[in-house]
Design brief:
Layout: H1 2-30, H2 37-48, E1 53-59, E2 68-77, E3 86-98, E4 108-123, E5 149-161, E6 166-175, E7 179-188, E8 191-199, E9 211-218, E10 222-230, E11 238-247, H3 250-257, E12 267-276, E13 279-289, E14 292-303, E15 306-319, H4 326-339, E16 357-369, E17 376-386, E18 389-399, E19 403-411, E20 418-429, H5 430-433, E21 440-452, H6 456-460, E22 464-477, H7 478-484, H8 488-493, E23 499-512, E24 515-525, E25 528-537, E26 542-551, E27 563-567, E28 572-574, H9 583-595, H10 607-614
Parallel strand pairs: 4-5, 15-16
Antiparallel strand pairs: 1-2, 2-3, 3-4, 5-6, 6-7, 7-8, 8-9, 9-10, 10-11, 11-12, 12-13, 13-14, 14-15, 16-17, 17-18, 18-19, 19-20, 20-21, 21-22, 22-23, 23-24, 24-25, 25-26, 26-27, 27-28
Protein name: AsmA domain-containing protein
GO biological process, one term: regulation of protein targeting to membrane
InterPro entries: AsmA, AsmA-related
Length: 616
């Protein structure tokens, strides 16, 4: 009897929990889910911070661990700032879900049937989005939808985005025959476009089954097409696609992809993309911008509110004017007409728009294109951006002959941009930079400048540092060499084809707060020795210089005194003294020559010492 009693207790101890579990499962299978309508309204209202209403909710089956709920009159109003109307207005929805995973807090929706749905998405100029109540977590990996069956009828979707100046309205449907389709019209920066999208039928599809899709935005001014597969139906966070895009400029295309790209010349691009939310991998990128071609790859990762880009960009032929839109070129032309030619470009260097972006890009250009002649032929560099500190280092600019090596940085970690350039010129030729002068010689140099400003031009205009250029062992037209020595006689009457020796041309400019002081500037030839004193304002590139030269032989007509040089770097104004333009002035020069009052002739300069000082 004792043993039977013990076995009975063990049996009951086993049966009771099983019975409890069985009763719980029975209750779950029979649960009247429609009774949770009020609780669902309250939780959705609290989550979205707006009054969500559901007119009715009822369970349509009696017993199942995969119950179906019929919802009628679902309404989610717009956020208060987004204006009147509803974010979502849904006539009916049939939703089948798995009940058992709910015991672990996991909601798995298996089938959805929607009818009479209207969705209106709004984003304002500040970037607030009506569908998430301003709560964004774009670093978070996207969840994978588990819907195996979806049908949509009599439904539409509208979108209005003030931040990117784009909008559209489209009809939306899904059934087992035609699959998912979207078709509508819209505007992108005022340009009309059509929108179409399609995907395979979602009917009995297992989660994780690859789902083909095609999406296209098409217009005269801008367009983009993506054809590929998502990892599962509607799994926009995990997809692979071939993408093509075009636009009147890159800024138009950026209204679609939102990468913060500037206005350019017309653009055509194509690439293969892989998305594993929140990251993107771009491969086989090719295309054209204006008359430039580009190719490359990139990986874009989002972590802790920051974006990191790693990749490479290469070009066979590249024109920097391709990076300016027609409007930008027009404004540049107007500015040039107003202030004249400038050597230093007005390129913007403010990093505020990429304050939350880091990364590394390898840059390579085989051939640089220019509107006129230029010694710059190719480019190679590594661009890194870390916490608002941009570096292009190492940087190499290949020349017709020689190269320019060094680094360029923009540091914006402590306020406004601080621009720094440190470049060394080697193995170059003077003639390649100034072909019109017919002056040649080996050319070396060093530029070290640093200054604050929102553009390169503004920063150089406030910079401090030094500029040094040295040309050695070359040639110079004999008449030019004589005139630089203020030898008017030989400069005017000499043989036009005769060449003199350029022993050295040494220019050292010490720069402080945008003012470059000559220290020294010397031109030494077989005909004369010339010194230039004064300063240059880098802010407006204006010259305030004085030239004084002496021939190395006595001259019949020698100009006394100094010659002022004004104007700008690109258009110097050599103020020829009036005495050279009149008979009286010439007679005076002749008189000084006869009287032996021309002054001493010049000796050769110590080119080695001058070079060492300039390039120190």
């Amino acid at each position: 009897m004792v043993k039977r009693s013990g076995r009975s207790r063990w049996i009951w101890l086993a049966v009771i929990p099983l019975g409890v579990v069985a009763l719980a499962l029975l209750a779950l299978a029979l649960f009247p889910w429609g009774a949770l309508r009020t609780m669902a309204e309250e939780r959705l209202s609290a989550s979205l911070d707006r009054p969500v209403t559901i007119a009715s909710a009822e369970r349509t089956d009696r017993f199942s661990f995969h119950p179906t709920i019929l919802l009628r009159g679902v309404r989610i109003p717009q956020a208060a700032w987004a204006g009147q109307g509803d974010l979502l207005n849904l006539a009916t929805a049939r939703v089948r879900f798995a009940a058992l995973p709910l015991l672990l807090g996991d909601l798995r929706i298996e089938a959805v049937e929607l009818d009479g749905m209207k969705i209106a998405l709004v984003r304002d100029a500040a970037g607030r989005e009506s569908w998430n109540n301003g709560k964004k977590d774009r670093d978070k990996a996207a969840s994978r939808p588990a819907i195996s069956t979806l049908t949509i009828a009599n439904s539409s979707l509208s979108y209005a985005d003030a931040k990117r100046d784009r909008s559209f309205t489209a009809a939306l449907s899904a059934d087992i025959n035609r699959g998912l389709t979207l078709s509508g019209t819209g505007l992108i920066r005022g340009a009309p476009v059509t929108l179409t999208a399609s995907g395979g039928a979602i009917a009995g599809v297992k989660p994780g089954t690859p789902w083909p899709f095609r999406a296209e935005i098409a217009g005269k001014a801008v367009g983009m097409t993506a054809v590929g597969r998502m990892d599962g139906p509607l799994d926009i966070g995990h997809l692979t696609a071939a993408v093509t895009g075009y636009g009147d400029d890159l800024r138009m295309l950026d209204a679609i992809i939102e990468a913060g790209l500037p206005g350019t010349q017309p653009v055509k691009l194509k690439a293969n993309v892989r998305r594993d939310s929140p990251d993107w991998i771009v491969t086989a990128l090719t295309g054209t911008i204006g008359r430039s071609d580009i190719a490359g790859h990139a990986t874009i990762r989002k972590r802790d509110g920051r974006t990191r880009i790693e990749g490479a960009i290469a070009s066979n032929r590249f024109d920097f004017n391709s990076l300016s839109s027609d409007e930008g070129l027009r404004k540049g032309a107007l500015l040039k007409a107003r202030i004249g030619d400038r050597i230093v470009p007005p390129t913007a260097i403010d990093l505020k728009s990429v304050a939350r972006t880091d990364g590394r890009l390898e840059l390579s250009v085989k051939q640089l294109l220019w509107p006129g002649s230029s010694p710059f032929r190719h480019l190679r560099g590594t661009l890194t951006l870390e916490q608002s500190h941009l570096k292009i280092e190492p940087l190499t600019l290949g020349l017709t002959r020689g190269r320019l090596d060094g680094r360029i940085t923009v540091d914006q970690r402590k306020g406004g941009p601080m621009f720094t350039v440190d470049l060394t010129l080697a193995q170059a030729r003077l003639l390649d930079f100034f072909p019109a002068t017919a002056i040649d010689g080996s050319l070396a140099g060093r530029i070290r400048l640093s200054g604050p400003g929102g553009t390169i031009r503004a920063a150089i205009g406030r910079s401090s540092g030094s500029i040094a250029l040295v040309a050695r062992d070359g040639t110079i037209p004999a008449r030019t060499a004589s005139l630089l020595g203020q030898d008017v006689g030989r400069g005017v009457t000499g043989d036009k084809e005769e060449m003199a020796v350029l022993r050295c041309m040494v220019a050292r400019l010490d720069v402080s707060r945008g003012v470059a002081q000559a220290n020294p500037v010397v031109i030494d030839t077989s005909r004369a020795l010339t010194r230039v004193t004064g300063r240059i304002s880098l802010a407006d590139e204006r010259l305030m210089l004085t030239l004084s030269g002496a021939p190395k032989k006595q001259s019949l007509l020698r100009l006394a005194g100094t010659i002022p040089i004004g104007g700008t770097i690109t258009h110097p104004d050599i103020q020829v003294p009036e005495q050279t333009k009149s008979a009286g002035g010439i007679l005076k020069m002749l008189g000084r020559a006869i009287a032996g009052k021309q002054g001493a002739v010049a000796a050769d300069a110590n080119c080695g010492a001058l070079t060492a000082k300039a390039l120190r």
